[in-house]
Amino acid sequence: MDATHEIELLRFTTAGSVDDGKSTLIGRLLYDSKLILEDQLEALKRSADITGGGTVNLANLTDGLRAEREQGITIDVAYRYFSTTKRKFIVADTPGHVQYTRNMVTGASTANLAIILVDARQGVIEQTRRHAYIASLLRIPHLALCVNKMDLVGYDQDVFEQIKEDFSQFATRLAIQDVMFIPISALHGDNVVEKSKNMDWYYGPPLLRHLEEVYIGNDRNLTDPRFPVQYVIRPHTDQHHDFRGFAGQITGGVFRKGDDVIILPSGKRSKIAGIHTHDGDLEAAYTPMSATLLLEDDIDVSRGDMIVTPNDIPDIAQDFEAMICWMHEEPMRRGTKYAIKHTTKKARCMITEIQHRVNIETLQPERDVDGFGLNDIGRVKIKTTVPLTYDHYSKNRYTGAFIIVDEATNLTLGAGMICEPANRPPLPEYEGYQI
């Protein structure tokens, strides 16, 4: 097997206010690590010659859209892929404007780590707290607070320590467990790839080394086995008439050959007869591997069903509470019917109650609201036409997440995180669910 397949993948996102230097930081990471191609470097140099001054603009490595380069802002989520000898990386560079909160939610939804940039001259501002709140809401396990533009404050340690203290006090109110503070200058490369000679008072690692070494082994839920069925593989020839598998991605825990399993929501039981993967047959498979499970019994299993183990049952309900980020100009209204996509299952749903909307400036709940506008975040109650099989989002980011979709256009309207499981009946009552 190619050794690159064994290198661990880290997904991270960048966030910060406008002009905090997010795109420049990622450009500096790629440039100083010599992780950009020769033709990309030549294009940057040509761009510098055209615009005058002859200075390479590292932000152009991620600000890929011509319109946003001309305006000097990042208006979408720009993804970059790169790798070192220690890790592979996918980075999402998200906008800093308040009105693009939805873009940060999109970029951060699958991230292991969030880099939040703070301008050393401005310190912790409302946008910093907003991005930290979203990172906490999305349960991103690791956060790196990079105090940028240290060169503009004379590399003053006291400035860095004050920002560190201010953010630490705020972070105590959030579900953030792992925070790393790094003083940097993205423009000059201080503490980005190499240790800065200008800040010998800082004893921590530069950013790239932290990205390479931060432990993410516990980020995935390896305790609760979850397998949403994406595709049913049926026999097409007489030669393979005995083969009937269920393909998908394991979104939690470990499945082993011979394990007792239960299919939800029907409640039917069987055993795993085999596990097929791209690399051949395995005795066990774990999240986030893609696999095909074979069962010993010929039972009815459909796309949208979930295979779990009998001693670890998720919640099954048609009514639940969730935090939602609304992503469309068309407002969300209580009582409106939408489509919902959760893991591999599709259904229809309705917002039955709006409990509160989060004031994105103060992070305080606002009661008595009748809808959500673009980029609003808040807590709602939802009722679906069929039962969903899910976990609390803090327990499993995959089985606890969903999107709201416009039935007519199929456009994504909102993204949600299930935050309070409904009370479920004992397992025998799942048998013969009437849908």
CATH topology of the largest domain: Rossmann fold
| Structural domain tally | 3
Total helix count?
7
**Strand fraction band?**
25-35%
What is the residue-averaged pLDDT? Answer: 82
* CATH homologous superfamily caption of the largest domain: P-loop containing nucleotide triphosphate hydrolases
Largest sheet geometry = 8 strands, antiparallel
Q: What is the architecture of the largest domain at the second tier of CATH?
A: 3-Layer(aba) Sandwich
* Number of DSSP-assigned strands: 25
**CATH class category name of the largest domain:** Alpha Beta
Characterization of this structure:
39% of the residues are buried. The chain is globular and about 70 Å long. β19 and β20 form a beta hairpin. The strands form five sheets. Strands 7, 8, 9, 11, 12, 13, 15 and 16 form an eight-stranded antiparallel beta sheet that branches. A six-stranded mixed beta sheet has the order 2-3-1-4-5-6, sandwiched between helices. The protein is α+β, with helices and mostly antiparallel strands. The N terminus and C terminus are likely disordered. The two termini are 45 Å apart. Helix content is 17%, strand content 34%. The protein contains seven helices and 25 strands. The chain has three domains: 211 residues, 3-Layer(aba) Sandwich (Rossmann fold); 82 residues, Translation factors (Elongation Factor Tu (Ef-tu), domain 3); 116 residues, Beta Barrel (Elongation Factor Tu (Ef-tu), domain 3), CATH 2.40.30.10.
